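Practice set, problem 2.
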Amino acid sequence: MYLGKRIFYNPEQAEKNRAEVIQFKQGAVWNAFVELEGLINKTQLAQQYFNKTHGWLSQKLHGCTVIDTKKSFTDPEYHQLADAFRDIAKRLNAHADEIDAAAPDSEMDDSDE
């Protein structure tokens, strides 16, 4: 199920295409980054969760060939990426909960005035 903000001319076909793409890990990863539409900073994701560079992540995402070797995620790296997404989701949910629980700005102390 697509959760992004794009509007499709043919939503049924888009969902069919999406279902086909996400059947395999490489497609599921590619689709995740496409659907997140730039919300994930790939440089920080590579550094914080893999201790690698943006270039490393980009080569894996695009399946680049480097020194006669096609770069792709290993099974443990796929799992690590999924865990990174889960951690980011957990962190976002925690921040959303803090925002909901915070007092309205109108209740802020106006002592600075």
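Problem 2, part (b): a different protein.
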Amino acid sequence: MTSATRPFARFEWMLAGRYLRAKRAESFVSVISGFSLVGIALGVATLIIVMSVMNGFRHDLLSRILGLKGHIMIEGVQTALPDYDAIAAKVREVPGVVHVAPVVEGQVMATANGASLGVIVRGMRRDDLKVMSVVSKSLAPGTLAAFAGDDSVVIGQRLAERLRLAPGMSITLIAPRGNVTPFGVTPRIKTYRIAGTFRIGMSEYDQSYIFMPLAQAQLYFNLADAVSGLEVMTDDPDRADALAGPVSHAAGPGTRAYTWEDINSSFFGAIEVERNVMFLILSLIILVAALNIVSGLIMLVKDKSQDIAILRTMGASRGAVMRVFMIAGASIGIVGTLAGLVIGVAFCANIESIRQGLSRISGTTIFDPTIYFLERMPARMDTAEVAAVVLMALTLSFLATLYPAWRAARLDPVEALRYE
């Protein structure tokens, strides 16, 4: 007989498989192993699903915010921005800038059919609205052609539904600061014809934004030949901070430039913090499942101590015994991780259908768009993140096998067989 065996020999795999398929009298060990496998699978699947949903939420929210507003905003330091066309021409020459649009923006009250809502009016030129694809692609044919004159506006679909309006009908806008009279400032009230409606899929914008031709917005808000600011679109939103300096320098004195990150820093910062905290919390599920592997293997080693002693007396080395139990424990981790990966990917691929099905079964609204801004539950899997989750689960599963396997290898055959 030899005391040395080839690492991971066939008999080591055979023994590990035999130990995992326990007999009825040893079924408790198999139950613990089964719970460990299920725990790892659920932990991996849950982590993949939650991280993918949060990635999708951030991506969809960001794409809609940046689709409706510029990556960089230029405003006057104290007043509205005059000579905006000349400033826009200079900003367009900055490398990385792809589009510059003058914008007039103000808050008003919209009323129709006895209902009133606070909304934001954005005055834009028709060509600039056409470039804003997140809005223009949702417009019905002919809407952009009708977006002209002094009495046409385009409103959000949710706003139209709440005020019971349709294209061709009228909406009344009331601005708090209007004409100056001897009795003070009176509100400006004007009725506009709805040229069409847009739907970008973000409820907050679909129910609170109205687009108006730039010249009419200047007249409505008493801005004469000035605008609220210039919206700058860049070739890469992530480079907005780097381009803010050159853009501000091109705009000249009397202006200030700030990026979309400056405006939404607290919002997206909160999303990032929540994402990191959720990752840490859900990782504990995998850790608990890995600890179950430890307890299951320790019980298995104790139950199989006589078998281990006989193997040692027949020539099996300590390394061979250790590898047997490492294979047994790692098999639970690998199978559980792969099962969790399949479940997580399948769930993310069909998450909207699953949400709708659960909503029908429970009779409740899951992922209310009025609360979560978006109309569909998003899921965007990041390959690197999924790989990190899988690698973490496999690593914890492997580490969980080391101590029980080491105890099995250190078992003294004489002590184990003394009372047999």
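Answer key, part (b): The chain has a mean pLDDT of 82. The longest helix spans residues 260-303.
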